[in-house]
Sequence to fold (161 residues):
Amino acid sequence: WNTGSLGHAVGIGAGMALGFRNMKLGQRVFVVLGDAELAEGSVWEAVLFASEQKLSNLIVIVDRNRLSVTSALEDDSIFSEFPAKMSAFGWNYIEIDGHDFSAIEAGLADALVSQAPTLILANTIKGKGVPFMEGVIDWHHGAPSDEQFELALRALGSKSE
Fold:
């Protein structure tokens, strides 16, 4: 589900994980959300629910790029002592470089054997590898022009067809 910025994806994922577990289907549920969504209360209600239900088949990946649709995320209060917070909620917490495929694979491997719900915090840079896009809020929701697309492909070492 694409739930927008409301932070409902963790709750939906927790419900699915509970249903799959109750039906003994062995399915895992993966939720991807942006770091700004963690400011929504519904996320934390779902985090608590998943912990109480011991939903080890729920894996939440947070794209920690420090940008929302309209602004940089200056207030770091949610993320201060984040590992301790997630541990207090009964979650397996993993922090990775979201641009490192080996780190992503290792994080997912750890999550798959966890006996608790897992949150993987993937530190990223929006637009990484494309100088005019890196860390620029407009690319959270913008589309490149044809010329910008060509520049991006060249920056990434690709050729257009």
